[in-house]
Write a structure and sequence with these properties.
heterodimer; A: 574 residues; alpha+beta; two-stranded antiparallel sheet; 11 strands; 57% helix; B: 47 residues; mainly alpha; rod-shaped
């Protein structure tokens, strides 16, 4: 009897684990999953670019620095697999935790909907794993914010800060999660003292510094190419238009990463059913999370929805290009994360409410089982590694050889990669489009084409990059100028050929393989001055890291001591 | 007679080279590596 109850209690957790494997098991085979912006390598180095000081605006910051640090502890291949498993697991278990007060049925349906949201599958195919990590920790951050609000415990405040820091691996994740949870934690009516609230606000703000500081000191601070606003606007996935697409949490700008199931008529119908269930679940959500949390979550979700739908307008383009920092918001589909989680939570509660209205137990059980299985059956192309689109691949050995040749013994100079295109398609990776892996493979700063070429109904559009050295090289190539003097002036001592191109005239080949050719730029090289404000950025990063490590240690210590006390109390009981 | 054969051949060859070069049929840069920025991969498609 007791074992039956234990099994029933464990069912939601087992379901989340099973669903995670159903989504990600094929990604666990040896190799790297390399798709669009998702690039991992065996060993990434802690270069200035990882801190946002590599030339371009800080986009994968501090994501790259954190990956480089973690790869001191484990190989890149293992790290990627841990992350890819962690995203569905953390989001699923987070929803179970957030809605624990609403019963198993509601929380397990909500967890399923959060893990299978179109937002997740589209962002995963685009390779935005750090943003999805922010999405995954959001339910946990909401829970901690609610606890801090209700009890004012310093530990809940600390937990909240650490969760926002995890979400802050990318600027967008940082902004989204902070905007959602910080007001819930500190708005008037919270039990915490004013001093505790100020401390939480200050600590959360400090987690922004690793990406905010390099953005502020960059020569192109605040600038954003106007073409980006139009190209990266929300995109309708069918004849049903932007509103239904956005309510369904799809609509990423890139048609190439949209699962086929999103383009079928069933997609808007499922959206309508989910919205109806979410409306049914709003009353129980108010009861479980409280008025402030529920209302603020809805406000942020609706603001994201409105912004995403408005992203194709001239007003949005003006905002993105004119307001400093607003360029962060140009890929407007990202802003749907709070909505995706809100719909999952509220629809889970709505399904449980519906099941309670069914008079017999079998019928009620059938409602829950249908709610768990239908999201799987209606979008089989997001399961099992996105229906086969995500599969690990092994890098050719030439990459290791080039990395070895560019070690400290090889002399100075940065690297430039040709042909001049920021994205690659390799036969060994089934010709999947992927970001150039060289900046993450090579042990020195690597300059690559940072303009983004996008096919649009109006033809090919280039969204310009922001690395001045890349701009100079791109201009020289376009003018067919001799590259060597320019490379010398830019402090670039090496040319890597990764595709159908030859070494520029005068560059001396030092390594030749069928996949890669490495050449040395002759003559003296100009010294590359450190980026503006580099010292400030490094100091701030070190302080933030120290603070986060201290906070994590404190949490672990409290937990261990709590566990010891509980065990002692049990042994003392008669 | 023999003295004008050389200039005639030179003139014909010169005209052929100049005409061919101006229409892009031939180039004097065949020994130079091709430009390195020819192929590109698009980031995605909004179509």
């Amino acid at each position: 009897m007791a074992s039956g109850r234990r099994l029933r209690d464990a069912l939601p957790a087992l379901w989340v684990i099973g669903l995670t494997l159903l989504l990600s098991a094929p990604l666990l085979t040896p190799g790297f999953v390399l798709h669009y912006d998702m690039v991992f390598t065996p060993r990434q180095d802690l270069l200035p670019g990882a801190f946002g000081l590599g030339g371009g605006l800080p986009r994968a910051v501090p994501q790259d620095a954190v990956v480089a640090l973690l790869e001191l502890l484990m190989p890149g291949m293992l790290l990627q697999k841990v992350i890819l498993l962690a995203i569905p697991l953390i989001s699923g278990f987070g929803m179970l935790r957030l809605l624990a007060g609403a019963g198993r049925r509601a929380s397990v349906v909500a967890a399923t909907l959060a893990m299978l949201a179109p937002y997740v599958s589209e962002r995963m195919l685009q390779g935005h794993w750090a943003l999805l990590l922010a999405y995954a920790v959001t339910p946990w951050a909401l829970h901690s914010a609610g606890q801090f609000r209700r009890h004012g415990s310093a530990l809940d405040g600390l937990r909240l800060v650490l969760l926002v820091a995890v979400a802050g691996l990318t600027p967008t994740g940082s902004v989204l999660v902070t905007a959602l949870v910080l007001p819930i934690a500190v708005a008037p009516g919270a039990m915490a003292s004013v001093r505790a609230r100020i401390a939480v606000i200050a600590a959360v703000s400090a987690t922004w510094l690793p990406w905010l500081l390099p953005a502020l000191v960059h020569p192109n601070a605040g600038a954003s190419d106007g073409a980006g606003a139009e190209v990266f606007a929300l995109r309708s996935e069918g004849a049903w238009g932007l509103l239904l697409t956005a309510l369904g949490t799809g609509g990423i700008w890139n048609a190439e990463v949209v699962p086929v199931s999103r383009t079928l008529l069933i997609a808007p119908l499922v959206t309508l059913v989910l919205i109806a269930l979410a409306i049914l679940g709003m009353k129980p959500l108010l009861r479980v999370l409280g008025r402030t949390a529920t209302i603020w979550w809805s406000v942020v979700a609706i603001a994201g929805l409105v912004a995403a739908i408005a992203s194709g307008t001239a007003l949005w383009a003006w905002l993105v290009t004119s307001v400093p920092g607003a360029g962060l918001l140009r890929d407007a589909h990202k802003l749907l994360a709070p909505l995706a989680l809100l719909i999952a939570a509220a629809a889970g509660l709505g399904v449980a409410r519906l099941a309670r209205r069914v008079p017999d137990a079998t019928g009620a059980g059938a409602v829950i089982v249908a709610a768990l299985l239908l999201p799987l059956l209606l979008q089989p192309d997001v399961l099992w590694g996105a229906g086969g689109r995500l599969r690990p691949a092994e890098y050719p050995i030439a990459w290791s050889a080039v990395r070895e040749r560019l070690g400290p013994q090889a002399g100075g100079g940065d690297v430039v990669v040709l042909p001049w295109t920021g994205f690659r398609r390799y036969p060994w990776n089934d010709d999947r489009t992927m970001l150039d892996p060289a900046p993450r493979w090579l042990p020195r700063t690597t300059v690559v084409a940072d303009g983004l070429l996008v096919n649009t109904p109006n033809g090919l559009v280039e969204v310009s990059g922001d690395d001045p050295r890349a701009a100079a090289i791109g201009a020289a190539l376009a003018a067919d100028d001799n590259l060597v003097p320019l490379l010398q002036d830019l402090g670039i001592g090496w040319v890597l050929i990764d595709g159908p191109a030859t070494l520029p005239t005068g560059v001396i080949p030092t390594y030749v393989s069928p996949e890669l050719v490495l050449g040395r730029v002759p003559g003296p090289l100009a010294a590359v001055p450190p980026a503006d404000g580099a010292g400030l950025v490094y100091a701030a990063d070190a302080l933030v890291l120290l603070g986060l490590l201290t906070g994590t240690s404190a949490l672990v210590l409290v937990r261990v001591r709590g566990g010891i006390r509980r065990r002692s109390a049990k042994t003392l009981l008669p | 007679m023999v003295n004008i054969i050389g200039p005639v051949i030179a003139a014909v060859v010169g005209v052929v080279l100049a005409g061919g070069a101006s229409f892009g049929v031939i180039a004097s840069q065949t020994a130079v590596p091709p430009t390195v920025d020819a192929p590109y991969v698009v980031y995605g498609s909004t179509e």
